[in-house]
Automatic annotation (TrEMBL):
The keyword Transferase applies. GO terms for molecular function: phosphorelay sensor kinase activity. Residues 1-20 are annotated as: Disordered. This is histidine kinase. The lineage of its organism: Bacteria, Pseudomonadati, Bacteroidota, Cytophagia, Cytophagales. It catalyses: ATP + protein L-histidine = ADP + protein N-phospho-L-histidine. Keywords: Kinase, Phosphoprotein, Transferase. Residues 46-289 form the Histidine kinase domain. Its EC number is 2.7.13.3.
Length: 294
């Protein structure tokens, strides 16, 4: 009868390679980083919930204010003989425009907040008709502002070339926005690393494209950063693989993004890159009726 193999460390057999101190330290750092991110996620969810009520208050009262302005406009013709009626009309037009902008931006903030809150729920994989171009633009800017919040010196040009025929498509928006966030944050990191190495003549650019075809649509996120060596490119989508320093990345973003695109949406996520030149991620999503049934 074969003698059972003894275990000298949790989860490691005696005939397995011994755990090195570097591996142990790296594992501890990774666990600590994931625990820190989990705590930040819980804190963020709490903050977003606290913001939700006053934000709804702003949106609702902006809507009511527009109604009041329109009511005033409806009775103004009764005072056409008043010498200041034209001036009052001009003020009302400006006031109404300001209130409409408040409501539009409040609604935009509400969409972003709902998307972020959905990340904390396990049931966020709900497919619904979504304005893809709007989602891409909003979460690209959100990713950029998030990076800039940690480094005021970071500046990048965002170039949007979004096909207006893309329109609304059936996706899981609260999952898909993670993909955009991950890819844009990675692009920001790549251009920032190149900026630190090169002179002021270098201009960081992140370009985003969408294009609708007969049976699929494509999203491209391209940066003119430091690029990815071929050896690294083959490992990009491996969970926990990262070239970033400890505390900067967990190595889960691209693996999660690929799973969302491949498994959840039935699409593909690929990458092309040249060292010291560019990196371009391409998302291809099928335009099939089966998406509408999810």
């Amino acid at each position: 009868m074969e003698t059972p193999k003894q275990i000298t460390e949790p989860g490691r057999l005696t005939n397995s390679p011994p755990v090195t101190s570097l591996e142990t330290d790296a594992l501890r750092e990774r666990v600590a980083e994931l625990d820190r991110l989990a705590s930040i996620g819980q804190l963020t969810a709490g903050i977003l919930h606290e913001i939700k009520n006053p934000l709804n208050f702003i949106i609702n009262y902006a809507r009511l204010s527009v109604d009041l302005v329109e009511e005033v406009e409806s009775i103004l013709p009764q005072f056409n003989d008043h010498p200041e009626v034209d001036e009052l009309n001009a003020v009302l037009i400006i006031l109404k425009g300001n209130i409409v902008r408040i409501r539009e931006n409040g609604t935009r903030a509400e969409r972003i907040m709902q998307g972020m809150l959905a990340q904390t729920r396990a049931d966020s994989s709900v497919f619904e008709l979504t304005d893809l171009n709007t989602l891409i633009e909003e979460f690209t800017k959100l990713a950029y502002q998030g990076v800039r919040a940690g480094d005021n010196a970071f500046v990048v040009s965002l170039d949007f070339d979004l096909d207006p025929t893309v329109g609304q498509i059936m996706i899981a928006p609260y999952e898909f926005n993670r993909v955009i966030l991950n890819l844009v944050i990675n692009a920001c990191y790549a251009v920032d690393e190149r900026r630190k190495r090169e002179s002021d003549a270098y201009k960081p650019i992140i370009s985003l494209f969408t294009q609708r075809y007969d049976d699929h649509l494509e999203i491209k996120i391209r940066d003119n950063g430091e690029g990815i060596p071929d050896g690294v490119k083959q490992k990009l989508f491996t969970p926990f693989f990262t070239t970033k320093p400890v505390g900067v990345g967990t190595g889960l973003g691209l693996a999660l993004s690929r799973n969302i695109v491949h498994e959840l949406h039935g699409g593909t996520l690929s990458v092309e890159s040249e060292a010291n030149n560019f990196t371009e991620f391409t998302i291809s999503l099928p335009l099939e009726a089966k998406q509408e049934s999810k």
